[in-house]
Amino acid sequence: MNKQKRIAAIHDISCVGRCSLTVALPILSAAGFDTSVLPTAILSTHTGGFEGFTYRDLTEDIKPISDHWQSLNIQFDALYSGFLGSFEQIDLVADLFDTFRTDNTLVMVDPVMADNGVLYSIYSPEMAKGMAKLCAKADIIVPNLTEAAFLLDEEYIGENYSQEYIETTLKKLAALGAKKVVLSGVSFEGEKLGAASYDSETGSISYAFNDKIDGYFHGTGDVFGSALLSALLNNFTLAEATQIAVDYTQMCISLTQEAELEKRYGVCFERAIPDLIKRLGLFSE
């Protein structure tokens, strides 16, 4: 058996609502990876569609956890960060990247902080600027269109964009420091939705689309990012990995619609995992 790759997933835990670590851990594990977790915050539910949720900031725990890992000489094939619970965590996670990164480590940052033109409730414009500095340390970043606007300190233009705008945005995002960019939530036709990817080393831009399903579904960004990383670490190209992530996310949404599940609890990613594993070539029928 080939060496099993190990990932450190740095996200919050929403105890109810399928997003962040409750999505990343099972998807990455099912894709064959030894997945370690570093929680950035614990919430009773995620913040979309629920009121009165509890929130515990775990900023003070990040460095002691990192220090202990370092004392054990733990090595990671990938470092994957998502939602961060405070401004201070940006520098702490940047330090963690510096500590555990090797020449063979893939660092992926999903700058989870905004959607539909609006920052999440605990985020500030200053924190968005700090997130741009963290993205500079990544090999690949995975923002949505709203997050891209905040990272670039530009106005969010909504759905009124052209292919030229998307491709210019990809290149601006890569100029922050990451060699590869995947921009999610891209659509040029009303019936199709997907993502655009850019590899600054080769100059190649690719698009991945699937059928659009109307409605807003919580946690799909985490589903997408986790599937993308799973494909990349299984040696798919950036363009191939983006298509796999788009297709898997669309299937999760479709299954949620078919089951008539309440949207605020997230998408039914569990029932689509067998299809993802097949796409990754981990087993065949």
From TrEMBL:
GO BP: pyridoxal 5'-phosphate salvage
Keywords attached to this entry: ATP-binding, Kinase, Nucleotide-binding, Transferase
GO cellular component: cytosol
Top-level taxon of the source organism: Bacteria
All copies of domain Pyridoxamine kinase/Phosphomethylpyrimidine kinase, residue ranges: 73-263
A Pfam short name: Phos_pyr_kin
InterPro entries associated with the record: PM/HMP-P_kinase-1, PyrdxlKinase, Ribokinase-like
Enzyme class: transferase
EC id: 2.7.1.35
NCBIfam families for the chain: PRK07105.1 (NF005491)
PANTHER family named among the record's database cross-references: PYRIDOXAL KINASE
Name of this protein: pyridoxal kinase
Organism this protein belongs to: Desulfosporosinus hippei DSM 8344
Lineage of source species: Bacteria, Bacillati, Bacillota, Clostridia, Eubacteriales
